[in-house]
Amino acid sequence: MGLFSRRRKSKDADPQPEDARTTEDAAVDDVDDRDHSDDTDAATSDSAAEDAPTERPEHLEDGPFDVADAPGESRIDLGGLQVPTVDGMELRMEVDQRSKAVTGANLVIQGSSLQVQAFAAPKSRGLWEEVRSSLRGSVVKQGGTAEVRPGPFGTELVTRLPVKRPDGRTGYRPARFIGVDGPRWFLRAILTGKALSDPEQAQRFETLISRLVVVRGGEAMAPQELIPLHLPGERPGLQQIRSGPLDPLARGPEITQIG
């Protein structure tokens, strides 16, 4: 995995979880002018989905792992995250302009993208329930819909955010939010693109999540503080592209490594 390419950020950043430029159109639903108020009301009634038990599917490994429990495997070291090497996967690193820090990793495979980030969490409780509630409220406030449902890693959030199409009409960009609470850390993954409607591709990304390793470290960190990431080593021709502050529903400019 040694070829890096530059991805340019558009002038007006879109506050939606959008896929890579080459798959952006595929990530947007057909134009939909219906009133989605009923969808929003239904999405807020999620107690049944939260309580529904789920069994771990056979295609998953035992992770995502804490570094202390991770099995031996070839991985890309990103600091707070270790990502398994996968044939055909593009690794796109997001960098914040103000802090000049790496803020996330995007794993792109065959027209779908998985953004992964790890955060510090308290010893006594997990963060996913709180974060999920906040995300859902943000999506609904922006005029989208958010559905809570059971998934292979527990409760998930499936969203549809409005986006203006070139013809001026409104389409909806879907995304799937997956959260995993670990020992003093929380992992958030956002899946977009073709894998949302392709079960085979979805399973491939789920397997990838189950192979991730989180490196929390022993230093004191505030709850929900981003666990520091770094670029996967120095490479000839590597260029960093930076933009504004991180938004939990936005994607930033990226550095791309193609495998």
What would you say this structure looks like, in words?
With 259 residues, this protein is an alpha+beta fold. It has a domain at 3-34 and 63-126 and 174-258. The protein contains 4 helices and 13 strands. The protein has helices at residues 37-43, 47-51, 128-141, 199-209; strands spanning 3-6, 65-66, 75-77, 81-84, 90-95, 102-109, 112-120, 145-151, 154-164, 170-182, 185-193, 213-214, 254-258. The strands form 2 sheets. Strands 1-13-5-6-7-11-10-9-8 form a 9-stranded antiparallel beta sheet, with helices on both faces. It has a 4-stranded mixed beta sheet with strand order 2-12-4-3, with no helix packed on it. It is globular. Residues 1-26, 30-45 and 234-259 have low confidence and may be disordered.
What is shown here, in short?
The chain has 259 residues and is an alpha+beta fold. Helices cover 14% and strands 32% of the residues.
List keywords for this structure.
single chain; 259 residues; nine-stranded antiparallel sheet; four-stranded mixed sheet; globular; disordered N terminus
Helix content: 10-25%
* Number of H- or I-type helical stretches: 4
In the predicted model, the low-confidence regions spanning at least 5 consecutive residues are 1-26, 30-45, 234-259
State Rg: 18 Å
- Summarize model confidence as the mean pLDDT: 77
